[in-house]
Amino acid sequence: MSNKSRIQDFFYSFFDGSCEQFDSTYDLFSDNVTIDTTLGKSIGRASIGAVNAHWMQAFPDLQGTADFIYEGNLVVANYKGWGVNEGTFMNNAATGKSMECSGIMIFEFSEDKIVSYKNTTDILGIYNQLGIQISAASLPTSRQKTHKNFEFLLQQIRNFSRNNVSLTKREAEILSFWVNGRSARDIGDFFKLSYRTVQGYVGNIMLKLDCGSRRTLLDAIIDSQALHLFREFYDLCIETNRFL
Questions:
Q1: For residue 208, pLDDT beyond 50
Q2: Could you say which of 107, 135, 163 is where a domain stops?
């Protein structure tokens, strides 16, 4: 079985809430796998179960779907999930409200074991849908970053190019959100821009980067080994509410 197929099994066992099937996927992970998710950073295979348990008790009917990309020793899942909040979520009481979310899972293999697992989830969107008041303090403190890091990441993203054409500051901001699975309407709400304005920015970005779809753009970013820049910048925007 290919690594891509194994990750697909892991993904759907997670979202289907199949504990028995999910437990059987533990062998995918190395004993000292590094984990970096919405809930924070940790080391060790047991943490995978803790992450799963947190999401499943918060959203017992959690379901999802994803597009999977296989590149070298990486498998990337660009996913969407949905469910009803019936349990405590990140120290917030259950609201009984429905939510939809999107994000990216990144699995790094060494031989036949996963040695690194990263998951960026649209936590801001979830909070908004559940009616939870958002503040930087309400998000994992282990993921707080500095203004210096923000400016550095922004410049790196602006310089990302396939034809020596730099992105504007706003284009870089919107691109980081778009790559991380946010829709044009989500981006407009976050940056207080109209849907049509965001669509215009996305069109300009695609022309500058010579990409015809989100998938081809994501492939280009993975090929250039720049995905972590977009993920870290997106996280920083969300965690510090820089634009709210």
A1: yes
A2: 135
Domain that holds residue 175: 145-240
We report the CATH number of the domain holding residue 130 as: 3.10.450.50
In the chain, how many domains are there? 2
β-strand pairing of 74-84 with 98-110 = antiparallel
Torsion on CA atoms 129, 91, 41, 115, rounded to nearest 10: -70
Q: Name the residue with tokens 């690194």.
A: 116
Task: Break the chain down into helix, strand, coil percent, rounded to 5.
Answer: 50, 25, 25
pLDDT digits (tens, 9 = 90+) for 65-84: 888 887 778 888 888 889 99
> What confidence tens digit (pLDDT) does each residue in 145-174 have?
444 577 777 777 887 766 667 888 888 888
Read off the tokens for 86.
């019936």
Residue 140 inside a domain? The answer is no
Q: pLDDT-based confidence at 94, cuts 50/70/90?
A: very high
pTM of the predicted model, to two decimals? 0.60
Residues 53 and 18 in one domain: yes
Angle (deg, nearest 10), helices 195-209 and 184-191: 110
Same-domain pairing of 130 and 223: no
Per-residue DSSP letters for 213-234?
Answer: SHHHHHHHHHHTT-HHHHHHHH
Query: Residue 1: its pLDDT value, please?
Result: 65
